[in-house]
Design brief:
Layout: E1 28-29, H1 31-45, H2 53-72, E2 77-78, H3 80-114
Region (Disordered): 1-27
Biased composition (Pro residues): 10-20
Transmembrane segments: 35-60, 89-110
């Protein structure tokens, strides 16, 4: 009985995918995810120069919008990995800005404390 049955060579599909509706859009990468990554990278690279605060802040705001759009798209917008990387870079840029500002304030306070105050008279004058 079983001798006359043949199987086709090749891998057997594990679970057949349900057919997609013809009007469903193709999944595409979010362009905002690319922008978040680019802004986060610029923020991280310029963080020590305090100029990174602007692109890093823009990256975090854009990431919030991109997450909302990706959720609303029902899975047809991809790029979550780029979004996460961009957010991490943006936060790193903001940390670098904070470190630079704290170092500048401490340096300024130390120099202010070392500076002489009042008028400096000669040693033989009361």
């Amino acid at each position: 009985m079983m001798g006359d049955m043949t199987t086709a060579p090749g891998p057997v599909p594990v679970a057949p995918q349900p057919p997609r509706h013809p009007l469903d859009p193709e999944p595409v990468r979010s362009t905002k995810a690319r922008a978040v990554f680019a802004l986060g990278l610029v923020g991280a690279l310029t963080g020590l120069f305090v100029g990174g605060v602007v692109p890093a802040t823009l990256a975090l705001q854009l990431a919030r919008q991109a997450r909302r759009e990706a959720y609303a798209s029902g899975g047809f917008l991809t790029g979550a990995a780029w979004l996460r990387r961009g957010e991490r870079l943006a936060w790193a840029g903001l940390v670098l800005v904070a470190v630079t500002l704290v170092a500048a304030v401490v340096t300024g306070l130390v120099r202010l404390a070392e500076a002489p105050t009042g008028q400096d008279f000669a040693p033989n004058i009361d």
